[in-house]
Amino acid sequence: MRNRFEIEMEELELDLIKMGNIGEVMLKKLLAALETRNLDLAKEIIKMDKDIDEYEISIEKKCLGLIALQQPIAIDLRKIGSILKIITDIERVGDYVVNIAEILVEFGGEEYIKPLVDLPKMILIVEEMLKKSLDSFIKLDDKLAIETAKRDDEIDDLYERIYEELLEMVNKENKKQVINLLLMGRYLERAADHITNICERNIYIVTGERMYF
After folding, report:
1. What mean pLDDT is reported for the chain?
2. Which of 68, 66, 86 has its CA nearest to residue 76?
3. Whole-structure pTM value
4. Any domain includes 121
5. What share of the chain is helix, strand, coil (3-state, %, to 5)?
6. Assigned domain for 213 exists
7. What total number of domains does the chain contain?
8. CATH no. for residue 167?
9. Three-class SS string for 136-155?
10. pLDDT, tens digit, for every residue of 47-89?
């Protein structure tokens, strides 16, 4: 029975990584879509949300099945409980990426009111954070999780800079785009918060201690 449990846990963890990898691909495509104003790419991102959602449902069912049928010991139960939280955070990251892609579609390829510098930086950092949060989960590396979670401060600083810069530029003609660009920054800031949650769960899996950033 224990061997079967270990096999099922490995499959569960692999599914979580696959789910997270979809999020990474979505972020890569988002960066390209933002920089090139590529509407087709933005629409591809929106369609990928279904894949994320399907993984969340499937993984949740497997987690509950393991708890009900295999009676996991304390450390395994801690991991399964954390996985249930992590998939929710990954799903939310995917939702925020889709929200930004939908704004890009709404833009319809129009020129930006200013060269975008900080938004692409935010996407890159969020993508790196997601990748490293998954790495820390695979490797049971709490130090990597702490290092990754701390990068949320960079995202907060970039968003604050975007906010202040765009507010100085707003007028009747560009008000709608300013609002949408601010929303993009806000969505990325929230995505980073959810990845920070993943890192906190990874630390909990390894140490059994709660750590908040």
Report:
1. 95
2. 66
3. 0.95
4. yes
5. 85, 0, 15
6. no
7. 1
8. 1.20.58.220
9. HHHHCCHHHHHHHHCCHHHH
10. 999 999 999 999 999 999 999 888 788 888 999 999 999 999 9
